[in-house]
From TrEMBL:
GO cellular component: cytosol
The keyword NADP is annotated on this UniProt entry: yes
Pfam families given in the database record: SDH_C, Shikimate_DH, Shikimate_dh_N
Function: Involved in the biosynthesis of the chorismate, which leads to the biosynthesis of aromatic amino acids. Catalyzes the reversible NADPH linked reduction of 3-dehydroshikimate (DHSA) to yield shikimate (SA).
Stretches assigned to coiled coil: none
GO molecular function list: NADP binding; shikimate 3-dehydrogenase (NADP+) activity
Known catalytic reactions: shikimate + NADP(+) = 3-dehydroshikimate + NADPH + H(+)
Record InterPro entries: Aminoacid_DH-like_N_sf, NAD(P)-bd_dom_sf, SDH_C, Shikimate_DH, Shikimate_DH-bd_N, Shikimate_DH_fam, Shikm_DH/Glu-tRNA_Rdtase
Protein name (record): Shikimate dehydrogenase (NADP(+))
Keywords: Amino-acid biosynthesis, Aromatic amino acid biosynthesis, NADP, Oxidoreductase
Length: 283
C-alpha cells in the first residue's frame, strides 16, 4: 500500500514528447507550467527516438509504466498507425500528436486542430463562423486542422496549394464536413478572405507562398502556424497587403498542449500566463 507521507512511495505520472529532433521542444516547459498551475504531480521529459525507432520507443515507454506521450516531427503518422483507438479528429487528421497508454490500449488523439481554432476563437477573439477562410498548403499540418476548422462553420474554406492536386484530394475528402474547395494560387486573384492561414512549410525556409495581391479582405486576420523571433515572410506580406491582424503559431502550440493536458489529467489549464511567458522568452 503506497504511503503518501513517505516520498519514496509517491509516484509521479510520467509523460514525454517524442520526436527527432526534440531538443528544442517547448512542450516540457509548457506542461511543467500547466502541472504547477493545476497542482498535478507529473514528470514530463523529452525523448529523441531514432527515425526508425518510434515503435520501439513507445513499447519501452509502456513497459516502464508511462501514462502518455506527445508526438512531434517526424512521427505523427506512425503514431496514428500504431494507435489501437483513435478520436474522430485523429482519424480525419491521419496523424496523432497525443497518446494515452491505458490498460494495454494506445489511444491516439490529435489536438493540433483545436489548438489552432482555440487560439483564433478564444485568444485572438476572431470569429470563424460565416467567414471566408483561405488555408495555404495541403500537407500534414493542413490535414491536421481541417476538421476542427470546418466544425466552426466558415462560410467557405478554400485550400490553396502549389501542387493543386493535393488540395483537391483534401477538399474532396473533407467535403462532407462543410463548404471546402481547392484552388491553385493563381486562381485566388480577385478573391478576398477574412482569414488567411499559412499551413505550408514555406516559412521554415524563409519563403513566401505565391499569393496574388489583394486576397486580404478589410479587417482580415493573417495567421502563420509557424512561430519564431521575427515576422515570417508570409506575415510581412500580409502586413504590407493591409491585413488588420497578424498572428504566429505560438498560441496554437500552447493551446494544443492544453488540450493534451486536459485529455491526460482531466483539468483545463489557463493558457494565458504560459503563452505570455513564452512570448517574453522569444522576444
Ligand atoms: P507539413 O507536415 O509541415 O504540412 P508537408 O506534408 O511536407 O509538411 O507539406 C508541406 C506543405 O508546404 C505542402 O503543401 C507544400 O506544397 P507542395 O505540396 O506544393 O509541395 C507547401 N510548401 C512548402 N514550401 C512551399 C513554398 N515555398 N511555397 C508554397 N508552398 C510550399
Amino acid at each position: 500500500i503506497p504511503n503518501p507521507s513517505n516520498p519514496a512511495h509517491i509516484m509521479s505520472d510520467r509523460y514525454v514528447v517524442i520526436g527527432n529532433p526534440v531538443a528544442h521542444s517547448k512542450s516540457p516547459f509548457i506542461h511543467a507550467a500547466f502541472a504547477a498551475q493545476c497542482q498535478q504531480d507529473i514528470v514530463y521529459e523529452r525523448l529523441q527516438a531514432p527515425v526508425d525507432g518510434f515503435e520501439r520507443a513507445v513499447s519501452d515507454l509502456i513497459a516502464k509504466g508511462a501514462s502518455g506521450a506527445n508526438v512531434t516531427v517526424p512521427f505523427k503518422q506512425e503514431a496514428w498507425r500504431l494507435s489501437t483507438r483513435l478520436s474522430e479528429r485523429a482519424k480525419a487528421a491521419e496523424a496523432v500528436n497525443t497518446l494515452s497508454f491505458q490498460r494495454g490500449e494506445i489511444i491516439g488523439d490529435n489536438t493540433d486542430g483545436v489548438g489552432l481554432t482555440r487560439d483564433i476563437a478564444d485568444n485572438l477573439a476572431v470569429p470563424v463562423q460565416g467567414r471566408r477562410v483561405l488555408l495555404l498548403g495541403a500537407g500534414g499540418a493542413v490535414r491536421g486542422v481541417l476538421l476542427p476548422l470546418l466544425a466552426l462553420a466558415p462560410a467557405q474554406l478554400v485550400i490553396a496549394n502549389r501542387t493543386v492536386e493535393k488540395a483537391h484530394v483534401l477538399a474532396q475528402q473533407f467535403s462532407s464536413f462543410g463548404d471546402v474547395h481547392a484552388a491553385a494560387y493563381a486562381e485566388l486573384a480577385g478573391e478576398t478572405f477574412d482569414m488567411v492561414i499559412n499551413g505550408t512549410s514555406a516559412s521554415l525556409s524563409d519563403d513566401l507562398p505565391p499569393l496574388p495581391q489583394g486576397v486580404f479582405a478589410v479587417g482580415s486576420l493573417a495567421y502563420d502556424m509557424m512561430y519564431g523571433k521575427a515576422l515570417t515572410p508570409f506575415l510581412q506580406f500580409a502586413q504590407a497587403q493591409g491585413a488588420a491582424q497578424l498572428a504566429d503559431g505560438l498560441g496554437m502550440l500552447v493551446e494544443q498542449a492544453a488540450e493534451a493536458f486536459q485529455i491526460w489529467r482531466g483539468v483545463r489549464p489557463d493558457t494565458a500566463p504560459v503563452l505570455q511567458t513564452l512570448r517574453e522568452q522569444l522576444a
